[in-house]
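This is your field. Have a critical look at both lines of this record:
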Amino acid sequence: MKTLSQVLGAHAAAVVTVTPRESADHALKLMTSHKAGAVLVMQHHHVVGVVTEQDCRRSAGEARVQDIMRPVVCASQQTTVRDAMAIMAEQHVSHLPVLDEHKDVIGLVSMGALAQEKPAA
């Protein structure tokens, strides 16, 4: 079974981040320009939340990210695709930040991307 590290290696992309005080409109513009469905909310070099395109579209134009962000659930780079999907289903999240052994963010995976992964032979 593939790990999240292997999935990220195949789909390498920069992680898009915002701060809690930025506007939802700014977060949405970043997602659009980076073709991302979510951005990580970072404060003092730590992930404090996730905000999705849907969250931004549902909010008022002047809403701050801190008011609409979702709690963050993370996984290690060694987590299998199957286990990551189970975590996401159990926690009701559509995006999962992936952390390395130093607890640094190395990527963000979506349920859709994981659903497309085929088990390793």
User: Anything to note?
Assistant: The domain at 4-115 is CATH 3.10.580.10 (CBS-domain). Residues 99 and 105 are 5 Å apart (CA to CA). The helical segments are 4-10, 24-34, 53-58, 65-68, 81-91, 111-115. Residues 24-34 form the longest helix (11 residues).
